[in-house]
Design a protein that fits this description.
Blueprint: H1 7-12, H2 19-25, E1 33-35, E2 41-43, H3 45-50, E3 58-64, H4 74-87, E4 92-96, H5 101-105, E5 113-114, E6 117-120, H6 122-126, H7 132-152, E7 159-164, E8 168-170, E9 180-182, E10 193-195, E11 197-199, H8 204-211, H9 215-223, E12 226-230, E13 235-237, H10 244-250, E14 258-262, E15 267-270, H11 285-294, E16 297-301, H12 309-321, E17 327-332, H13 334-340, H14 353-372, E18 377-382, H15 389-401, E19 406-409, H16 411-414, H17 420-431, H18 447-457, E20 463-466, H19 468-482, E21 487-490, E22 510-519, E23 524-529, E24 548-549, E25 555-556
Parallel strand pairs: 3-16, 3-17, 4-15, 4-16, 8-11, 17-18, 18-19, 20-22, 21-23
Antiparallel strand pairs: 1-2, 2-14, 5-6, 6-14, 7-12, 9-10, 12-13, 14-15, 22-23, 24-25
Length: 559
Amino acid sequence: MAEVKSDIEIARAATKKPIQEVGARLGIPSEHLLPYGHDKAKLSADYIRSVQDRADGKLILVTAINPTPAGEGKTTTTVGLGDGLNRIGKKAMVCLREPSLGPCFGVKGGAAGGGYAQIVPMEDINLHFTGDFHAITSAHNLLSAMIDNHIYWGNALEIDTRRVAWRRVMDMNDRALRQIVCSLGGVTNGFPREAGFDITVASEVMAILCLASDLKDLERRLGDIIIGYRRDKSAVYARDIKADGAMAVLLKEAMSPNLVQTLENNPAFVHGGPFANIAHGCNSVVATTTALKLADYVVTEAGFGADLGAEKFFDIKCRKAGLKPAAAVIVATIRALKMNGGVKKEDLGAENVEAVTKGCANLGRHIENVKQFGVPAIVAINHFISDTDAEIEAVKAYVEQTGAEAVVCMHWAKGSEGTIELAQKVVELVESDVAQFSPLYADEMPLFEKINTVVKRIYRGSEAIADKAVRDQLHQWEQAGYGNLPVCMAKTQYSFSTDPNLRGAPTDHVVPVREVRLSAGAGFVVAICGEIMTMPGLPKVPSSERIMLNEAGYIEGLF
């Protein structure tokens, strides 16, 4: 049996084209590409403005069932479908999020696709890339520093130090920094107060960058950030301490989408990266809307399962950017369906049609949910060598009963050759023009009712519950003019419930809303449900233990 190459070995052996050639396929003149080496570049704001009068292509969302340790392969399928569409003669490109260093060195080890369906340069994308995340971290922490500096020099805005809402961030998993006390050490270091860190991908600055339409909109949104409150509970904004201009300067280059390529030299934008369980989980609006002007088909993904990623893509990103998705692809693996059906990870290699059928309840729920938004769905079975014909047929039969279709995809092993059928079926679905997209709830619905709507219609819970303090806070924001904002649910990705161990398709569970945060600049209200953490910790054996430089100086361990 031939040796199976690792993702990084496959990526390193790739024949990459100069990024100017990749851009030329989209009609982008080389002078509008700001190169970062030979194989990645940023697209100029001038060029983005110049294509705004063009008609939009068709937008396809790739989402998935709830993630399990068995793996689903959403990014891999996104890349594979993009390559497949190009293979059958369509002008297509993919839009992905940038990976966070936290998960790369924590659990994932990388997030640039896999096998023969990857984006390259894989090492750069997974590590520092073009510096966007560092710029976001710097802009966020500049605001943090300016808040404490303002308080130190007399606190003219009368910020209540007990009510500073702006935390600090870093792009790494570090549980020790979740809650800290800062400004210790005497008078010269300021006034001691409780504070804490979130991971960069949970920063409101990340969400703002991903939802802003241009630099002017970016600066306006940065100014709208609520940094804290006075003793009378009136809000203090980032513009009040004159931080918005300097933050926008730090983010000037980061606002431009990053152009890279797939292993098959097809164009891809990789830009922005909010988490989907604690933020809104979609790549930037600028990248997606620009791609729609440059290609006939744009394939994008939303993080984790459709209960989080797709819901936020539809209810936040599409609502705010005026996007109208034409179709959705729901990714599932036989292995993950078995786990949803109760099989332990060590037993996934054995055929178990009964467990697959039982686990399909999770898939069926996601199909129903996507259809609630008026978007037609197709299921991509991301193929593993251990899958049996009987198991695959069980999934196809189940999906057919829902009125959708399931297609086996072998992009991991075969690249675009393995997604020809999926690409053809997606084109049929898109061109049938049956999509009638609309968000789940209206803008004018009260905030807690919006939360309850997501809980009941997407999670199939009985209700959302919250302390009086949480409900009062939502009412206060409504009175202040924020009642028309969408809600961003911060919840475990592993279950429809807030219990990560409750797999399958649970119903009638209660969803506790522990805390709410107003992201006035991003334009949504975050509802933190259950035990979700906005600063993750590292696992017992982090991926970082396996990531190193080999004797030849090459990176090993990213996958």
